[in-house]
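tool_call: predict_structure(chain=1)
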Amino acid sequence: MRQVILLLVISGLNFTINAAELKTIDMASDWGIKPVHLRVTADGYMVEFRYKILDTEKALILSDRKDFPYLKSMKSRARLTVPFFPTTGFQKSSRRFVKKGKNYTAMFSNENKHMLPGDKARIEIKNQASQILTLQ
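tool_result:
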């Protein structure tokens, strides 16, 4: 009985969205950003997503402190998260006042090396998903 209760509690904390509920968006018109690159770094243990701000109001979705972006692999279906380090905090731009024309970064943990250069992935935030990107 305890195992069933624990399973329900843990599954209740895990927030997942079905693929049917995800809305595919255009990064420029919906999020106000242009992807600069998506590449594997730190000897394969991190994935860096660098983007340029086109519209400061729309781009605030990426710097929200409550809803973090995920990087989802199209091949393995792994969801990479933004890591937190005690000395530096979350590894993404968290500025509330982003500037148009500047580049910003979000890092994703690739601890088990689910993603390699050439793999396809997309960024997911809330119930929105970007177009498919290719890792460099």
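agent: The chain has a mean pLDDT of 81. Proceeding to next step.
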